[in-house]
Design goal:
The protein is α/β, with parallel strands linked by helices. It has 7 helices and 11 strands.
């Protein structure tokens, strides 16, 4: 068996960690420090994340999609397959080296999705684009870190906090979709997701598609018209409810 070879490495902004691209024959793996984050042979759930989102868009014309996390490009590639020629896709990637790897070393694995004319890249934190008004997105797809429990950066958790979910709600068009990839279930996140004003469904599937592998979880939330429960108008006095969801932010 061939030994693993270090191809390139890069510091993760504001985390102190290091991301490494490794190769063994045709196998490519991205590590964060000593932990495997993703590999080119295991991407069934990443494909499904985008496919399920696009299915629920139901051929919406001129869709504007925001993808948080480029990874090895599989989520982006699957989204492009499910969208029309008039779609616009912005992919936000915090680590510049990951964008460079996808244009060169990793490009063949996912079919060079960054070369598609519908795609633009934002070099930075997807949270910055989510918080930027006005509401423009038909879908926000979060393939960031390991999901609600951060692996690479503790600050990634803010995307999945009550405040982060409120920001996503505000950034979406009516009936817009927020989809989230996760390495494992998280009941607290599921409750926060619903309380933020989304009709939520969760789907368990395998990392290698139908062939098996580890089970991963995808959450799909459709933005309700009436908004979060604690921000709705009272039917009795017309005042806005100001209660929280029953704990500190992100603390369910």
């Amino acid at each position: 068996m061939k030994p693993w070879e270090l191809i390139d490495s890069a510091a993760i902004p504001n985390s102190g960690g290091t991301m490494r691209l490794m190769r063994q024959g045709h196998n490519l793996v991205i590590h964060v420090d000593d932990r495997e984050l993703m590999r080119n042979t295991v991407h069934g759930s990443e494909d499904a994340l985008a496919e399920l989102t696009c299915d629920r868009l139901d051929n919406r014309q001129g869709s504007r999609i925001l993808i948080g996390g480029l990874g090895m490009g599989f989520t982006l590639a699957a989204a492009l397959r499910g969208l029309g020629d008039d779609a616009q896709v912005v992919v936000a990637e915090l680590v510049p080296a990951v964008v460079r790897w996808n244009r060169d070393l990793l490009g063949d694995a996912a079919g060079h999705p960054l070369a598609d004319s519908r795609v633009s890249v934002y070099d930075g934190d997807v949270a910055d684009l989510i918080r930027k008004p006005p509401a423009l997105w038909d879908a926000i797809i979060l393939d960031v870190d390991n999901g609600p429990v951060g692996l690479t950066r503790a600050t990634n958790y803010q995307l999945y906090s009550s405040r982060g979910l409120d920001s996503a709600f505000s950034a979406l068009k009516p009936r817009g979709i927020l989809s989230v990839w996760s390495a494992s279930p998280d009941r607290g996140f599921a409750r926060r997701f619903e309380r933020a004003g989304f009709a939520v469904e969760s789907i368990n599937l395998r990392s290698r598609g139908r062939r098996g592998g580890r089970r991963h979880l995808i959450w799909l939330g459709i933005r309700k018209a009436e908004g979060p429960r604690w921000q709705r108008k009272s039917s009795t006095n017309g005042e806005t409810e100001t209660g929280t969801e029953g704990g500190k932010e992100g603390g369910i």
